[in-house]
Amino acid sequence: MELEERRDSVNSVVTKEGESSGSSRRRRLFWKLRQRWKLLGLFEIDRDHEFYPLTCDLKEGLRDSIQDVVCTNATQTTLTDDDYNAKLTQGHEGYTMRTYAGPVFSHFRQSLGVSEETYSRSLSACGFYLQFISNSKSKADFFLTNDKRFFLKTQSKREVHFMLQILRKYIQHFQAYPHSLLVKILGVHSITRAQDKKKYFIIMQSVFFPDERITGRYDIKGCHVSRWTEPEAEGSRVLQVFKDLNFEGNVICLDQQRQWFLRQMELDTRFLQDLNVLDYSLLVGFQLLHPDEKNQNWSLANLIVRTKRSVNGAGSPTTSHSASVPGTIEEESGSMDKDGDGIENSSTSEITSGGRVPLKKIGPQHSTVSDISDVVAQNRRLLPNYRNPLHVMDGPELRYFVGIIDIFTVYGLKKRLEHLWKSVRYRGQEFSTVSPSRYSTRLCQWAETHTV
């Protein structure tokens, strides 16, 4: 309660009573320096930052919208058409927050093992948001929660409407393939502030979480034109995301998990192809394994825990708790998600015979995965006991963070014309804007040739 009062006090001082001329001058100076030096990386959105008032409003609005969805759907057991079309509008002093399809995203968060308490705490904590400035051509603004667990990204009205239009198919894809590499989108909102245009934004799980020991980050599209990032001088602390041409000479060593990865890439890109989508990226992060993490000899108990987590635990949106397995350690069971503070949160779900997705469990639970053939059909794997298991794979020497992001670009008339123009300008070269079928095939080929 004290934290909320302090944040509300800051909001009042900054956004309601006006900004001091000194703060305004510092913001303008910061902006000019950033534009001049083209800075990359993470910057704390403190009281002198141009986006500080906005992020204060976002924290308050998101906290209230999450709480409202939880209270409204406390007794609801199935998702309906109304849930997919839901719009929650909340008025605040100086701004209005709107939440889209709140019950659907609430359920999806639970199915991934992200409790509403953890989600709300991360988004509305007193710690400053971080601004991520990349070398991407996108005009979007990227904000990162202070614990670096969730991204907030501004989107165009068209992109948001497209996301809501495909939301049912998106959820169904995760029901069919619970270990999908697609970015986990956890909320869609808009905020309208006084004298500002309405801003639409999505909230998604960070692929690179936790990021403390990640030594390299790559954004891969499977082509060559404009796919090089000039590295900073050695010793620079600038956070860079490199591209395809920077990756040449490297391989992803997955060993026994390679076939799973290639199959999941095929499944996910085929889904995006069916949506007529292109320009998405495969994010890849590298992290050295500690000596005691290499060539682990898993005990039978650990294998049982990992199997249970993969089939019945967090990260499996179509399943729920099964009976306890002899030899498992309850506090390490798959249904538990340890957040950054070491607090465990239990969250599971299942599918009803009618195809609807319950929002909470009622009565005795049974696994919906009846035999190994179901696991194989859904391309599941033994999930690691990490805080981001769906996006993490271990090889012999390195840990890899992988995920497919930016899934909102439709191959419409504008992109078709862009393809024709680039076909002339870059004749014989591989560029980004190609048909969804070609894009899907090309990215899968990249994964095939760059993994061992």
From TrEMBL:
GO cellular component annotations of the record: plasma membrane
Family matches, as Pfam families: PIP5K
PIPK domain span: 35-451
Region of interest (Disordered), ranges: 311-365
Superkingdom as given in the UniProt entry: Eukaryota
GO BP, one annotated term: phosphatidylinositol phosphate biosynthetic process
UniProt keyword list: ATP-binding, Kinase, Nucleotide-binding, Transferase
GO molecular function, one term: 1-phosphatidylinositol-4-phosphate 5-kinase activity
CDD domains the UniProt entry points to: PIPKc_PIP5KL1 (cd17304)
Name of the protein in question: Phosphatidylinositol-4-phosphate 5-kinase like 1
UniProt gene name: PIP5KL1
Tagged with keyword ATP-binding: yes
SMART domains, A to Z: PIPKc
Ranges of biased composition (kind: Polar residues): 313-325
